[in-house]
Design brief:
Layout: E1 21-23, E2 26-31, E3 38-39, H1 40-53, E4 57-60, E5 66-71, H2 76-85, E6 95-97, H3 109-125, E7 137-141, E8 155-160, E9 163-168, E10 176-181, H4 183-199, H5 211-216, E11 223-224, E12 239-242, E13 248-252, E14 258-260, H6 261-271, E15 278-282, E16 286-292, H7 297-306, E17 320-322, H8 336-346, E18 353-356, E19 370-375, E20 378-383, H9 391-404
Parallel strand pairs: 6-7, 7-8, 17-18, 18-19
Antiparallel strand pairs: 1-2, 2-5, 3-15, 4-5, 4-14, 8-9, 9-10, 10-11, 12-13, 13-16, 15-16, 19-20
Helix pairs in contact: 1-2, 1-6, 3-4, 8-9
Bound molecules: iron/sulfur cluster.
């Protein structure tokens, strides 16, 4: 079905090839590849398709999905054809997020993928998918070097020594822990929980469940638990990531959240030099490349840095959230990437800065310390969500704006 034939598109529902989302720079398609990740050749095909059928801009979302931007109603079908031709398998149905690397056979992690696959099949068999809210999310994680602890989930199953810890709503820290299940009981309990959510109506979420629902799960094998048995997790750092069995991965981030088709093509082409690697889109707008030998890690990091990727947590570009901006978006009043790069080059403090090309502020995060917006008459710099804009940051941003877009008036 073409996008033009879907006036009912809901902005906040995760778009797919069948239902792209209208944005400031055209239609956006969001894809969740299977947990096995993509080969260098498949990423290359994706970069070419994004260039040919969209505006050449891709993104990795906070939940680790691939987004292709700048499509038109008549370019979605050719994009779908190119994805099929590259044998890129896309997960359909309700979103089940697993950590990258959980498809491998290193200790414990294959249990994550196995449960995800079985749960997905069970949801399809029970015809449950269309009865759940469009943004229902399921996170299955735990014994993996890559954490999904920050992702909000309606239902979360965390692998531990006794089986799985089950929680609903929130991220791993704030979700409501409701119990522990054995490996055997994980699937029936998860399915029953989702059935309880669906029974509460088409907009119900995991956080809406109550103690009556949880009591009913005892028959499926849930043992009530109130305190987490999972260790605290910090977000996975950029750079080298040690895997079991002496293998390595490298975690990268596209600069400013944007994966332009040129740098993606450069990186994808060079991956073959390192062997038969897989590159996974990952939560936190990251990319994970594996498996590497120890002596390949530094070489790959150096190469990715040369192609413009962020390869370390100390990179100032991580502090900036930007929208597509000019020239990709027709609504934009400034080149957000050029502005952001100029700011990052001179940034000397740990401020979170939002830059959008117009007042629609598509990239505005929940919290930021300073905001720069493009307008027809010029550019505004304002303070953030928590406190007033410090003078030192204001003057640094003004200087950067004068350098990056001298033709724009600072209002
Ligand atoms: S905020 Fe940015 S991406 Fe959104 S419409 Fe404005 S210029 Fe386009």
């Amino acid at each position: 079905m073409s996008a033009a034939a879907r006036p009912d598109m809901i902005r906040n529902a995760c778009p797919s090839l069948a239902a792209p989302m209208a944005t400031g720079d055209g239609l956006l398609v969001r894809l969740k590849p299977l947990p096995s990740g993509l080969s260098g050749g498949q990423w290359l095909a994706l970069a070419s398709a994004a260039q040919a059928h969209g505006n050449g801009r891709l993104e990795i979302s906070s939940r680790g999905n691939i987004q292709i931007r700048g499509l038109q109603a008549n370019s979605v079908l050719p994009l779908a054809t190119a994805i099929t031709a590259a044998d890129i398998k896309i997960a359909a149905g309700p979103a089940i997020d697993c950590p990258p690397l959980s498809n491998t056979d290193h200790s414990g992690r294959s249990a994550i993928t196995t449960l995800a696959e079985h749960l997905h099949s069970a949801i399809v068999s029970a015809d449950l998918g269309h009865r759940l809210a469009a943004k229902t999310s399921i996170v299955i994680e735990g014994d993996s070097p890559f954490t999904l602890a920050d992702l909000i989930a309606d239902l979360r199953l965390c692998k531990n020594a006794g089986g799985w810890q089950v929680s609903v709503g929130g991220n791993r820290r704030r979700g409501k822990i409701i119990g522990q299940v054995s490996d055997e009981a994980a699937l029936p309990v998860a399915l029953k929980l989702l059935t309880c959510i669906a029974a509460r109506g088409p907009h119900a979420r995991g956080r809406d469940l109550d103690t009556d629902d949880f009591r009913a799960l005892a028959t499926a094998g849930l043992v009530p638990v109130k305190t987490s048995t999972m260790p605290p997790m910090t977000p996975t750092s950029l750079g080298p990531l040690a895997l079991p069995d002496a293998a390595w991965a490298v975690v990268l981030q596209p600069a400013f959240g944007a994966l332009d088709s040129k740098s993606l093509r450069q990186l994808s082409t060079q991956l073959a030099v390192f062997g038969d690697l897989r590159m996974h889109p990952a939560a936190g707008k990251k990319l994970v490349i594996e498996p590497l030998a120890a002596d390949q890690v530094e070489r790959l990091i150096e190469m990715a840095g040369r192609f413009g990727f962020i390869v370390g947590d100390d990179d100032r570009r991580q502090q900036l959230q930007i929208c597509v901006g000019a020239p990709g978006c027709a609504q934009a009043h400034m080149d957000t990437q050029a502005v952001a790069q100029t700011i990052a080059d001179s940034l000397n403090q740990s401020a979170r800065i939002h830059v959008s090309g117009c007042a629609k502020a598509c990239a505005r995060p929940a919290q930021f310390d300073a905001e720069i917006l493009g307008h027809a008459a010029g550019v505004t710099i304002t303070g953030g969500t928590a406190k007033a804009l410090p003078d030192s940051l204001n003057s640094l941003l003004e200087t950067a704006l004068r350098n990056a877009c001298s033709d724009r008036r600072i209002m």
